């Protein structure tokens, strides 16, 4: 990866410096002081500068520092697109690496969305259509792209696709993310409340444990009818 180094000077406090880096698109900005300049240091630095070295040194003593400034400039965001048949091996690899089931992925591939970056798949999410409803499944993000908003983008794209198809509700099973999906409008439900077509999917039948949390999101058409 490229590494940029340099020297920066200026009369900014630490918070202002971090804010400017953030506004410029950097993330994880941090400042690690390596030396705090005291009175005698400053007198020596200011000598010959045409200033009242003693007065200025006293004013800024303990306030001038040398520091390591570290920040990361994120790569361009991955491209979200519809999956193709050629994507199946990479989708299954992502799921396997994340210990998620691959049963039924090939059959539902036409309703998968993938995230591609630099020619590689770094995320995926799928809909398994079940007549008027669907199962949201196989939401996965490569480790290097986690906690960067990609999972949210994939889920939002899948929800938008479900609504565009006029589906009534989305269901999902999760063993680890039941606190994540309520932000998208999902609510906990029971297996008994799941429509037969959804309950007949491989994820409900065999791929996910009986202890998995069942969640449901009512989509536009069904929601408007109930209002």
Q: Estimate the helix proportion, in percent.
A: 25-40%
What is the name of the CATH superfamily of the largest domain?
Gcn5-related N-acetyltransferase (GNAT)
Q: Give me the number of helical elements.
A: 9
Average of per-residue pLDDT values:
87
Strand fraction: 25-35%
Radius of gyration: 27 Å
Strand order of the biggest β-sheet: 3-4-5-6-7-9-8
Question: Largest beta sheet, briefly?
Answer: 7 strands, mixed
Task: Show unreliable segments.
Answer: none
Number of strands: 9
The helix/strand class is alpha+beta
Number of domains: 2
CATH architecture of the largest domain: 3-Layer(aba) Sandwich
Please summarize what this structure is.
This protein has helices spanning 14-23, 39-46, 53-60, 88-97, 105-108, 150-164, 196-199, 202-207, 220-226, and strands at 27-37, 64-72, 79-82, 112-117, 120-130, 133-141, 169-174, 187-189, 213-218. The chain has 227 residues and is of the alpha+beta class. Helix 2 (39-46) packs across helix 3.
């Amino acid at each position: 990866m490229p590494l940029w180094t340099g020297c920066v000077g200026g009369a900014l406090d630490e918070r202002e410096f971090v804010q400017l880096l953030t506004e410029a698109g950097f993330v994880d900005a941090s400042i690690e002081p390596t030396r705090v300049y005291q009175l005698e240091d400053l007198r020596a630095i200011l000598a010959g500068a045409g200033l009242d070295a003693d007065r200025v040194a006293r004013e800024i003593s303990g306030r001038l520092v040398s520091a390591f400034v570290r920040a990361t400039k994120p790569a361009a965001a991955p491209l979200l697109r519809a999956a193709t048949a050629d994507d199946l091996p990479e989708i299954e690899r992502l799921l396997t690496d994340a210990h998620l089931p691959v049963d039924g992925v090939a059959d539902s591939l036409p309703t998968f969305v993938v995230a591609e970056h630099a020619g590689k798949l770094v995320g995926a999410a799928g809909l398994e259509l079940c007549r008027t409803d669907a199962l949201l499944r196989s939401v996965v993000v490569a480790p290097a792209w986690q906690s960067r908003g990609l999972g949210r983008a994939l889920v939002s794209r899948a929800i938008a696709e479900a609504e565009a198809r006029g589906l009534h509700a989305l269901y999902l099973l999760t063993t680890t993310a039941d606190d994540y999906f309520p932000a998208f409008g999902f609510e906990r439900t029971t297996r008994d409340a799941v429509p037969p077509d959804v309950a007949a999917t491989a994820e409900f039948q065999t791929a996910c444990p009986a202890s998995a949390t069942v969640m449901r999101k009512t989509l536009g058409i069904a929601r408007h009818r109930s209002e």
